[in-house]
Fold this protein.
Amino acid sequence: MLGQRVKVRIRCNVCGEKFVLRGKREKEKIDTGFKQCICNNLDDFEIEEQLV
């Protein structure tokens, strides 16, 4: 199903900051608009997905 809403929990593995975002699943990718952590980390995250 295209455009399915999902809740995403993102945890930074560098500083431990946690983010809870909502986004849309488009094929294999989830678009939340998340770019980077407040510690400037761009790619070292633990990501957990839940259907809304």
Q: What stands out?
A: The chain has a mean pLDDT of 91. The two ends are 14 Å apart (CA to CA).
